[in-house]
Amino acid sequence: MIVAPQRLSFTEPLPLQGGAQLPAYELVYETYGTLSPARDNAVLICHALNASHHVAGHYTDAHGQPLPKSEGWWHNMVGPGKPVDTNRFFVIGVNNIGSCFGSTGPTHLNPATGQPWGADFPVVTVEDWVNAQARLLDALGIERLAAVMGGSLGGMQALSWTLQYPQRVRHAVIIASAPNLTAENIAFNEVARRAIVTDPDFHGGDYLRHGTKPRRGLRIARMIGHITYLSDDVMNEKFGRRLRPLVEAMRDGDVETAERLAYRYTTQEVEFEIESYLRYQGDKFSEYFDANTYLLITRALDYFDPARAYDGDLSAALARARADFLLVSFSTDWRFSPARSREIVKALLDNRRCVSYCEIDAPHGHDAFLLDDARYHAAVRAYFQHRVAAACRAQE
Amino acid sequence: MIVAPQRLSFTEPLPLQGGAQLPAYELVYETYGTLSPARDNAVLICHALNASHHVAGHYTDAHGQPLPKSEGWWHNMVGPGKPVDTNRFFVIGVNNIGSCFGSTGPTHLNPATGQPWGADFPVVTVEDWVNAQARLLDALGIERLAAVMGGSLGGMQALSWTLQYPQRVRHAVIIASAPNLTAENIAFNEVARRAIVTDPDFHGGDYLRHGTKPRRGLRIARMIGHITYLSDDVMNEKFGRRLRPLVEAMRDGDVETAERLAYRYTTQEVEFEIESYLRYQGDKFSEYFDANTYLLITRALDYFDPARAYDGDLSAALARARADFLLVSFSTDWRFSPARSREIVKALLDNRRCVSYCEIDAPHGHDAFLLDDARYHAAVRAYFQHRVAAACRAQE
């Protein structure tokens, strides 16, 4: 599947939950499949921290050939014949405001100053993103979604859709998500933010004007993130206590060296394979991700809490929802544990919503929502085939 | 109980596991209680990352008055009438080499250069610490310990004592510890180290010569540490999603303000109480802790792995032990989980050692080993009264 991003400009300012408003802005998005004549087969995919509108398919080079490694972040989930089947559904991936992957964000110019927004970019929330997404649907002529779907922070957007626009969502698919962050979740976000903000290259958020980037802080932020995305078990299986040079020697078939190799006794150099992995992930991330975007998106996570206006009563908060729901959680996900998904399930059942819930016994921790897992994909496939598609047919 | 630290100089170089040797060095230690004429009631307490020889009792001011807040780090465990009763036992607290609390470490002068050791301080391991502690016992005329005891990294030292000096340990009390670190444990250590080492004020470890300190890195390291010391549950209970200004307003009885207060929508300022707590802990730590010491001690944690020389067979590794054992773990400790303590228990039972094991249902996570918990303290008290004291009497 060959795809290309599209771009839409919005001239009406977007009022934000924080009190500010975003003047003229742009949204970058992609679509896969064909919108039905009845315009009733649209599925909106919401992205999490480190993702974008590029959900599925490949980009092409100048000769129209698929670019290697250009597949979208949910390529295994969305596409022709995939669990979210683009032969049946018209799927929309949209990049959120505040991102560094195309839609208006802190690296763009602030029309009021002619300088990059930087730290002055207004705080955006899950609710703001949903409002912006709703305007995109207006522009595309889609009144009602067959489904809204997302994992992690994307799941929060899907949940918020059912509360902000209850009449516009037929189904919500919420994967590895939570009704809000715990203190520990916020704590991890805060450490990552402090690492970024106290990096001398951050310059109060105006690093672009200083021709630099807070790479050290971004590296630390990403390393922390990676630890929380994986389960303890999968880390032990993938890396264990293996030494880095040992792994290299064995890869070269040099068993003699491998056997001779032992601790090198160093405090600053890489000793264990897990260290090398984290450093690599941190380095890579620090090259392409924007620091102000990291602050904005982690804050959107922190702030999301639909029960807050109801004194913490999630059942009361979800009373507005009209959609049917599929929730999926993963047994080893300690960032957004199954217990958090079950809170949402319970609150929906309290409101007599129609809810399917799958708790998948998977070893991969939070990352599982992005990985191939036969039972997980089968559950999503079945839900889309039997429930979401049926709802479209019923309207036909 | 009024106490004062003592200091002993050792002129014989200490050979280190990493291949280097430490020339003349000093150990700072404290003792509580009285050594019996038979010299058979000595209990050695080993410290963890952020602790020292000052286990119990108070220091005094110039007028001999107890200094407020000067009590030792295990004050609730060690003292007259406490679980480790200094009316009965002669308790020794010793500061480890590489520390920044008195014993020879990276802030001290390297005799070869006349400059602070800094990053040139040799890597030290749990085994090296135990060897240094054994020399201290030699100097104090103690051939055999009634018990060696420690929590977390201190528990690793206690376990290593039973392997390095099996004849010199009657009982080992190992609390909230593990036979080695998991990949996830190492990963958290590595992120903390990267935060320190990449702080521009680190200067490759020679920050003292530059008249500075890598405070930013130390703050991040401490914040990460604090998250892993606490359980998710206790964090939710202590902090939850409470907002910082809200807490302040309510503390002042200003309910009207508290009710008015809501999210302030800020990416860089404190919003949640948990953020304020972590920042405070990080700031405090960065003022008194030495960065090179942090690197050394986390590496000692990473390297400890007695089963390593036995192809990972912990039962084979522990075959040398001759002591009796008490192990304690805490249900919500996800840093050193009960499963890790049970690995040690199983390996000891495989060797037909006499082992008592308590898994305490406590909400506080890893921190529980430092806190008052009636069942935990009762178990340690009973073990010392009935088992450790009996062993002393049997020798009398």
TrEMBL record, chains A, B:
Substrate binds at residues 222, 367. Its EC number is 2.3.1.46. It holds the Pfam family Abhydrolase_1. The record marks 335 as: Important for acyl-CoA specificity. The active site is at residues 152, 333, 366. Residues 41-372 form the AB hydrolase-1 domain. SUPFAM superfamilies: alpha/beta-Hydrolases. InterPro entries: AB_hydrolase_1 (IPR000073), AB_hydrolase_fold (IPR029058), HAT_MetX-like (IPR008220). Signal peptide: none annotated. It is found in: Cytoplasm. Keywords: Acyltransferase, Amino-acid biosynthesis, Cytoplasm, Methionine biosynthesis, Transferase. PANTHER family: HOMOSERINE O-ACETYLTRANSFERASE. Belongs to the AB hydrolase superfamily. MetX family. This is Homoserine O-succinyltransferase. It comes from Tepidimonas charontis.
